[in-house]
């Protein structure tokens, strides 16, 4: 059986004349934490949306476990997405937010209840939080509820769009352990869009460096530091080089 969970093949998406994604190909292995890094406007969110199925690419294919899903509906892909603003439904409480995907899939009430309880404890959130509204939670707690909601449907692949960028430093430290242990605890494969190299190095097994809709290099944090493929990659990781080399 193949080691690969996701294959993206020559994906291109244009808006007018400009290509948000320009001939992008890469694979993500099962249980990998794959980072997508690049400056603002480099096509990171467009990539996630194409993989999820809410943006239709102009060209190229997406495969999940060798099966082509380029034209499969979002619901049937088994992929979960946590958008940059966490995407919690403001008018639903924590329990209803986490249960949402299971309800749509018509899971039995008892199954939903125990799944929500289990996810809350996995995210180390008290069971009393079930009745809280999203606005009554801190940023880090909202992020963890969003993660619980995404994991509720036991997705094959989890897509997280800049999970750290709306959090201050202290909250980031609160959330990082949950993101680090996703694969081990939930058997999940995850793609993280991250806009700082340091965070990507801390979190990801491999990183794809994006620039203007193209992939410049895909490598482990170690390889990226030691052997950047182009001057552009060097430039993008410069800020990290100046700091301490992270433990990778
Ligand atoms: P990133 O997430 O890396 O900041 P995006 O994927 O959001 O980048 O955007 C890549 C490029 O595509 C940007 O130039 C952006 O303006 C453009 N773009 C993204 N979505 C749309 C859209 N719905 N309509 C027009 N242009 C878009
Ligand atoms: Mg984005």
TrEMBL record:
<keyword id="KW-0813">Transport</keyword>
<dbReference type="GO" id="GO:0016020">
    <property type="term" value="C:membrane"/>
</dbReference>
<dbReference type="GO" id="GO:0016887">
    <property type="term" value="F:ATP hydrolysis activity"/>
</dbReference>
<keyword id="KW-0547">Nucleotide-binding</keyword>
<dbReference type="InterPro" id="IPR003439">
    <property type="entry name" value="ABC_transporter-like_ATP-bd"/>
</dbReference>
<feature type="domain" description="ABC transporter">
    <location>
        <begin position="6"/>
        <end position="237"/>
    </location>
</feature>
<dbReference type="GO" id="GO:0015697">
    <property type="term" value="P:quaternary ammonium group transport"/>
</dbReference>
<dbReference type="InterPro" id="IPR017871">
    <property type="entry name" value="ABC_transporter-like_CS"/>
</dbReference>
<dbReference type="InterPro" id="IPR027417">
    <property type="entry name" value="P-loop_NTPase"/>
</dbReference>
<dbReference type="GO" id="GO:0015408">
    <property type="term" value="F:ABC-type ferric iron transporter activity"/>
</dbReference>
<keyword id="KW-0406">Ion transport</keyword>
<protein>
    <recommendedName>
        <fullName>ABC transporter domain-containing protein</fullName>
    </recommendedName>
</protein>
<dbReference type="InterPro" id="IPR015853">
    <property type="entry name" value="ABC_transpr_FbpC"/>
</dbReference>
<keyword id="KW-0067">ATP-binding</keyword>
<keyword id="KW-0410">Iron transport</keyword>
<dbReference type="GO" id="GO:0005524">
    <property type="term" value="F:ATP binding"/>
</dbReference>
<dbReference type="Pfam" id="PF00005">
    <property type="entry name" value="ABC_tran"/>
</dbReference>
<dbReference type="InterPro" id="IPR050093">
    <property type="entry name" value="ABC_SmlMolc_Importer"/>
</dbReference>
<keyword id="KW-0472">Membrane</keyword>
<keyword id="KW-0408">Iron</keyword>
<keyword id="KW-1003">Cell membrane</keyword>
<dbReference type="InterPro" id="IPR003593">
    <property type="entry name" value="AAA+_ATPase"/>
</dbReference>
């Amino acid at each position: 059986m193949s080691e690969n969970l996701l294959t993206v093949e020559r994906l291109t998406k244009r808006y007018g004349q400009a290509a948000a994604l320009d001939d992008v190909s890469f694979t993500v292995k099962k249980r990998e934490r794959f980072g997508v890094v690049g400056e603002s406007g480099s096509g990171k969110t467009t990539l996630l949306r194409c993989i999820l199925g809410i943006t239709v690419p102009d060209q190229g294919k997406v495969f999940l476990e060798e099966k082509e899903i380029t034209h499969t509906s979002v619901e049937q892909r088994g992929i979960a997405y946590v958008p940059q603003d966490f995407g919690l439904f403001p008018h639903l409480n924590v329990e209803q937010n986490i249960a949402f995907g299971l309800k749509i899939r018509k899971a039995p009430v008892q199954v939903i209840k125990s799944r929500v309880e289990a996810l809350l404890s996995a995210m180390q959130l008290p069971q009393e939080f079930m009745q809280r509204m999203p606005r009554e939670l801190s940023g880090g707690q909202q992020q963890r509820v969003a993660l619980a909601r995404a994991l509720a449907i036991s997705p094959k692949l989890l897509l997280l769009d800049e999970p750290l960028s709306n959090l201050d430093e202290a909250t980031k430290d609160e959330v990082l352990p949950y993101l680090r242990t996703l694969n081990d605890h939930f058997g999940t494969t995850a793609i993280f869009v991250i806009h700082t190299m340091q965070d990507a190095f801390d979190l990801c097994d491999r990183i794809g460096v994006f620039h203007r809709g193209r992939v410049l290099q895909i490598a482990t944090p170690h390889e990226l530091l030691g052997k950047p493929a182009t001057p552009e990659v060097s430039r993008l990781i410069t800020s990290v080089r100046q700091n301490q080399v992270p433990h990778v």
